[in-house]
User: Fold this.
Amino acid sequence: MTGGIVITISLQQCQQMGPLEMAAGSPLVAESYSFLLESANEITDSLLREKVLQVLENPAPSFMQQAKDPAAAALLWERIAVRADKQASSLEDLFAPCSDPAVSPQPFWSAPGSNYDRHHAYPGGLAVHTAMNLKVSLALARSYYDIYRCRASRNVVIAAQILHDSQKPWVLQWNQDGSCRQQKSIAGERVHHVAGLAESVYRGIPCEVVLAQASAHVYPGNENNNRKLAYCLETACLLANTDPADYGVTGHKLSAAWAGVEPLIIHMGDSNWVLSLQAAMATVTALKQYALTEFAMSEEELASPVFYSLRNYVFSMCTMIKLYEILSGKGYDGFRAAVREIIH
Assistant:
């Protein structure tokens, strides 16, 4: 009924597994990550290809090497503090712990795709989310050529879509209880977006890729959107200690020529959150009902590692969207049958 390869385990086995082990054992996650690696290897610009593969293999926040000592961290915080979430009081509080900026706190393939109360919030969710975004983006690029004979840069599309959420392995680290860290905001965006841009700038990703990457959340065109993009890019450049003019921002305004369709393709390609957020809310609610009735969990246990381990395993094996399709089409009985195929 789940329509894919599922490894069925017991609840007791599930509770003994951590998020990395769950992601490593998911055929869906492995397939998604392999697609990202294959796509990155298709980038014809050898230097860009190497940089994108390096991010996939080690999505470390290397721009934070500028803040390795307290004095440098204080200086970097001073540059961006006014743009940061008012609830944040330091770089570490704004972003996440970072013991070694040269090494990612977790692999790309094990990270969740969003905050624990949002879409793709399960082990491997980032790989699944990014693979979906890239497939949509490549299909859009083909459609622009088929209909308009408009050639989008395949290199830019692949690189920008893979890099967009590249700092979620750092920002959304797994907590001990099986949930993941919540994000704060900076420059009017979730921190993963600005941190991802800062990392791309710091690693020397070409301007046209970074501009397309920046368009994932806000598409350029009108004055209000251009102002938001300028503020976001400027903040990323401050974090990377780079002149914002190199990335199309002069005098706090967007000055770059946003030619081509790549920014629109990246923006539209990142739109799966509309369905996936709805799927997350519905399937988490249904899974809580399942836990209460099938495993006799208490209400208190629904906010504890007891439920989080169940949730992480079920969604990493089947995804929220597939279970949402089952829940919508076959009701709760169909959902319950699908979950029983995954865990007992």
Notes: The chain is about 55% helix and 0% strand. Residues 271 and 327 are 22 Å apart (CA to CA).
